[in-house]
Specification:
Layout (H helix, E strand, L loop, with lengths): L11 E9 L18 E7 L6 E2 L6 H4 L12 H18 L6 E5 L7 H6 L3 E5 L3 H9 L4 E2 L5 H11 L2 E7 L8 H11 E12 L1 H6 L12 E2 L2 H10 L2 E9 L5 E8 L8 H13 L10 H21 L4 E4 L3 H10 L9 E2 L17 E2 L2 H6 L3 E4 L5 H7 L9 E4 L5 E2 L1
Length: 407
């Protein structure tokens, strides 16, 4: 296997999570009697550009299907994050009704609805029909295409250049990362700005956030790798900041290489931090597999003991990261009775691989489990707050990553 950015041979295996199904391939009851597709989930690091990545076992259209079940607007905290982002961009870059904002991977219009509320023209690019339809229901124009240089050229030819492009949690989702990034250099106005948010590799390694690894995430990103990829495709990183989402993310600001945006000291500071952490040191990656195994064994020990004691365990949040965790640990419906999720698109289906049934949140009060395992640990505070009644019957919340903890 060769690096998807620089084509160097990939020789260092970081972690092997076994064969797993696609993380968002939720099953219907009828599909439980059929076959289910699995592929290796192995992570490698490139010693030339330091891009961390998995092989491309799935084409994008196989993962991001018409009935894609992830809707961004389900999370109130994520909506608040999007609204704050829009306000900050409008103020910092002086956006007005004369500007055009494009979001790539715009999902259900969760972010662009706030752009529209400022009276700014906006367009979403979203390949999944289910979420694009939801965005149109909010009055957001949505183009059902995968983004890259070709689409960017078409947009420029028909509509001109964008003043701002947003790409939240999508840079990791593209198999051809070079073509994807090149599209932003094409689409941007001469002084335009592109922002990208993605979970920071430093937090994945140091916090053992191995459950954020799944087939939709082709790449796991540091500023070190991102800066090199951007430079090769005509973009310059001029600012970076840390944001708390998804267990700790980076928000990277980029512009065309000939733009006048001044590079802030934060860029070099982040590169120095990554160097100190060991992003360019093969030894830094060596401990992730052992830590992941510890988490797996601790979770299995807890679930088996609970079962032996006659306790009932449910889960909350049918998240992709939860599917990675359950399938890596070999957990099935004999150890977790059900998982609740607020997204109607997931309710009535079954988790891929584990086949744990997905129910509406009301099932918690109806069935009163002794423990509720929070799978999207990055939303722990929100879930504990919205499902506070669990404690009324003596139930307790549990998280497994980065270490097993009863709340």
């Amino acid at each position: 296997m060769n690096c998807r950015h620089c084509n160097a041979a990939l020789e260092q295996l970081v972690i092997d999570l076994g064969h797993q199904p696609a993380s968002n391939a939720y099953l219907t009851a009828e599909q439980l009697d059929g076959t289910e597709g699995y592929a290796p989930l192995r992570v490698y690091v490139c010693h030339q550009c330091w891009l961390v990545q998995i092989p491309s076992f799935h084409a994008s259209h196989e993962l991001f299907t018409a009935d894609y079940a992830y809707f961004s607007s389900v999370s109130n905290s994520w909506l608040a994050h999007a609204e704050a982002y829009v306000g900050k961009m409008v103020e910092r870059f002086g956006l007005t009704s004369d500007d055009w904002v494009v979001e790539v991977a715009s999902n259900d219009g969760y972010l662009l609805q706030f752009v529209a509320a400022h009276g700014i023209r906006c367009t979403g690019v979203e390949p999944t029909a289910s979420t694009a339809a939801a965005a149109r229901g909010k009055g957001i124009e949505s183009i059902e295409r995968f983004f890259g240089a070709e689409l960017a050229q078409e947009l420029v030819a028909s509509r001109g250049h964008a003043s701002l492009t947003a790409a939240n949690n999508v840079l990791a989702h593209v198999p051809d990362i070079n073509d994807f990034v090149a599209g932003f250099a094409v689409l941007l106005a001469p002084q335009g700005v592109s922002t990208f948010e993605f979970p920071h590799l430093v937090n994945l390694i140091d916090g053992c956030q191995f459950d954020t690894i799944y087939h939709e995430h082709y790449s796991y990103l540091s500023l070190t790798a991102v800066q090199a990829i951007f430079a090769a495709q005509g973009l310059r990183v001029f600012d970076v900041e840390e944001v708390p989402t998804h267990g700790g993310s980076l928000r990277v600001y980029a512009c065309r290489t000939d733009a006048e945006h001044e590079t802030t000291p934060a860029v070099q500071a982040m590169l120095d931090l990554e160097m100190d952490k060991g992003v360019t040191n093969p030894a830094w990656y060596a401990g992730l597999a052992a830590e992941a195994e510890r988490i797996k064994l601790d979770l299995l020990d807890f679930l088996v003991k609970a079962r032996r004691q006659g306790k009932r365990v449910a889960a909350y949040g049918a998240a992709a990261k939860g599917n990675t965790l359950l399938n890596y640990a070999g957990v099935r419906a004999d150890l977790i009775d059900f998982v609740c999720d607020a997204a109607p698109s997931k309710q009535g289906r079954f988790m891929p691989g584990s086949h744990v049934p997905i129910l509406a949140p009301a099932a918690l009060a109806e069935r009163k489990p002794d423990y509720v395992l929070i799978l999207p640990w990055n939303l722990t505070a929100e879930i504990v707050s919205t499902q506070a009644e669990v404690r009324d019957w003596g139930g307790r919340f549990v998280v497994a990553v980065p270490r097993l903890k009863l709340l």
